[in-house]
Amino acid sequence: MKNLFSIFLLLGVVAFVSGCEDDDDNIVLPTQFTVVIENVSTPQTVATDRANGTVPLSPPTYAVFTGDDPMFTPGEKANLGTARIAEDGFPTEMLSILASAGNVNFSAAAESPGGPDNGPALFAGESVTFSISAVPGNKFQFETMFVQSNDWFYAFTGGGLELFNGNTPISGDQTSRLAVYDAGTEQDTAPGTGPDQKPVQDPMATNVGPDEDVAVALASSRHAFTIPANNAVIKVTITPQP
C-alpha cells in the first residue's frame, strides 16, 4: 500500500512540473521597440516665409495602450490634451489624461532634440528616438503639432497603430499610416499664414486665436488649403529589438 501511495505521489509531482513547464512555454515576454520620429521637411515645403517654409513639429506625446485610442477620436470633440498639443505643442494636459486612463500601459512625451537654436520644437532635419515595450494586442499612438497651422497635428489613423501582426512585431517605416488632423478647436488659416499660428506667437503662449468648436477631422477633408504630403514633413520608423 505504501508503495502504491508513493507511485501516485510521484506521478502527481511529475504532472505538476509538466504543467509548470507548459505555463512557462505560454508566457509572452514584452518586445522592446525603438521609435524614431524625424522631421524631413525642407525649405518651401509650405509656401511661406515663416521658418523658411519648413514645418516644425512639437516633440511627440505618445502612449502604448489596449482597446480604444485614449488620445482622440475622429468625429468627436478634441479633449483639452489634444487641443493644447494641436494649438501650442504643449504635452502637460495630455500626459495627465493618459496617466489616468485605465487602458494605457505607458505614456510619455519625447524630449526636445534641442538643435542648433536649442529650441523646443523638432525642426527640419532633427529627430527624436525613444523606446517602448509592448505585447501582442497593444497599440501605439502619438500626437505632434503641425506647427505651421492653427490647430493641426499628426497621429496614426485607425485608432492607433497595432504593434503586432498576430504574435509577430511590426518593423520598418510606418509613415503611410499617419494623417494630419484638424483638432477643430481654433479657426484656421492656410498653413504658414495669419496672425494666430504658433511661429508668430510668444513661445509660451497658449490658446491664442479665435475659438472653434467642431469635431476632430482630417485637415484635408475640412479645408481646400494646400497641405504637404505626410512623407514630405514627417517619417516614423519602428524597429523591434532582438
The major beta sheet can be summarized as: 7 strands, antiparallel
Give the helix proportion (percent range): 10-25%
Tell me the CATH topology.
Immunoglobulin-like
Using the coordinates above, name the CATH class: Mainly Beta
Alpha plus pi helix count: 4
CATH superfamily: F-spondin domain
| Number of DSSP-assigned strands | 13
Low-confidence stretches are 1-22
CATH architectural arrangement = Sandwich
Question: What is the string of helix and strand elements?
Answer: HEEHHEEEEEEEEEEHE
- Mass-distribution shape: globular
Protein model, in words:
There is one protein chain. Residues 1-22 have low confidence and may be disordered. It contains four helices and 13 strands. It has one domain: Immunoglobulin-like (Sandwich). Strands 2, 3, 5, 6, 7, 11 and 12 form a seven-stranded antiparallel beta sheet that branches. Helices cover 19% and strands 26% of the residues. The longest helix has 25 residues, at 2-26. It has 242 residues and is an alpha+beta fold. Helix 2 (80-88) packs antiparallel against helix 3 (92-99).
Describe the SSE topology.
Layout lengths: L1 H25 L4 E9 L21 E5 L14 H9 L3 H8 L4 E6 L17 E8 L4 E7 L6 E5 L4 E2 L1 E2 L2 E2 L2 E2 L4 E5 L34 E2 H4 L11 E7 L2
Antiparallel strand pairs: 1-4, 1-13, 2-3, 2-5, 5-6, 5-7, 6-11, 8-9, 10-13, 11-12
Helix pairs in contact: 2-3
